[in-house]
Amino acid sequence: MSRAELKKVVVVEKIISGHMTNAEGAAVLGLTSRQVIRLKKRYLTEGGAAALVHRNRGKKPVHALSDETKERVAVLYSQQYVGSNNCHCAELLTERDGLELSPSSVRRILLAKGLKQTKQRRRKKAHQPRERRSQAGALWQIDATPFAWLEDRAPAFALHAAIDDATGLVVGAVFRPTECREGYSLVMMQGIQKYGIPLGLYSDRHTIFRSPNEPLTVEQELAGETKPLSDFGEAMKELCITHLKALTPQAKGRIERLWGTLQDRLVIELRLLGVNTMEEANAALPALLRKHNRKFAVKPKSDERVYIKLDSSIRLDYVFAKRELRTLGQGNTLSYANKTYTFAKPSPYRLDPRMVVEVRETFSGEVIVWYDDTAIHLVEIEKLVRKPKEQIKKASSASPRKPASVHPWKTTMSQTQIKRTTKKNDFQDALYSQHNSYAEALW
């Protein structure tokens, strides 16, 4: 018997023995007098203290889960939903298997089967959460995280995403092989096209968002120089979005907590969908984000939205483009990426040679000149391919030749040659003798 039941037995026995009235017993037990009278009657007619034990003791509740259901839950978790938390597992059981169970029931079943969650409980918060913005569109937080989203079915890749600070709504997301400017730009383009232009953006201090030469010296500030911006920063400036850069991850805790949720849930969802490549993951991502937003998005304090409507004349692919400065040559030509370009049509603007213009390259590879908020389209000039000159075969140096054995150099001189040589030698001797005699006479 429990302590409460033992207490009932003691009080009922005192009432029966006349040491306590029904009203006093009711006050002690916290019951009404009628309930005490029924307890006393049951004690007298049904065999004493055993009659006061709860009658459902030892009986299985009518609404209790069957052993088959418990076994099915354990098998489904082990084979399909392994790694999911109790809440997510209960949602998947209801959505995919028709088993409507509470997270606490799932937890009890898994613990009884010895299936404990591998992930630790959430640690105590070391930083006080910053208060949300009151209106949707006041601030977006953007970030990227590399993770094994497809477990061992594919290499790890990065998820880029942006979340609205007021509602917790994921406004855009895309998978890319690594954290890159293109991923962030695609996320911003998704969100702007669907909701509008936000007033502010909160990011980290990655060089995608800021130039390494951003800090200016005192001399540069006095000279009136402005901070150099990255291509992404230039896009934010063009759209009039206030760009804030956090010094710590905790400062943009909304997007950091989103990674914990997505890494916990998205991995299992992609596994259940049979996704094996990054391209398939990108195709399945919009539906998964809609499901996430339905569950986790909250209502802002103010129903008024502060998004700025995107002007129909603005092309976002020109805004989020790669930008470089080039000098115009004669005939409105310019060099870019080892190629030569010129205007596709005569420009309505007077652009002089040697003028510095801004060249933009979109993600699709289109190259334009951006001048006076207008895109001037370019076409590539095909370079003439010169035929290579025919190479004339040069004569090689003659190899040394060895005289034959019958060569005159290797034979003895004839008698005629000997006579000629003798005469020549005699003539030289006579001349030499005459010269000596003439020299003696002079001396």
Automatic annotation (TrEMBL):
The record's Gene3D superfamilies line, in alphabetical order, gives:
Ribonuclease H-like superfamily/Ribonuclease H
Report biased composition (Low complexity) as residue ranges. Answer: 394-405
Provide the Integrase catalytic domain boundaries. Answer: 125-315
User: Which sequence ranges form a coiled-coil region, renumbered to this chain?
Assistant: none
Pfam families, per database record: HTH_29
List the InterPro entries: Homeodomain-like_sf (IPR009057), Integrase_cat-core (IPR001584), ISNCY_transpos (IPR047797), RNaseH-like_sf (IPR012337), RNaseH_sf (IPR036397)
**Per its UniProt entry, which superkingdom is the organism in?**
Bacteria
> Region Disordered: which residues?
115-135, 392-420
Q: Where is the composition biased (Basic residues)?
A: 116-127
PROSITE patterns (alphabetical): INTEGRASE
Question: What NCBIfam families does the entry give?
Answer: transpos_ISNCY_2
Protein name, as recorded: ISNCY family transposase
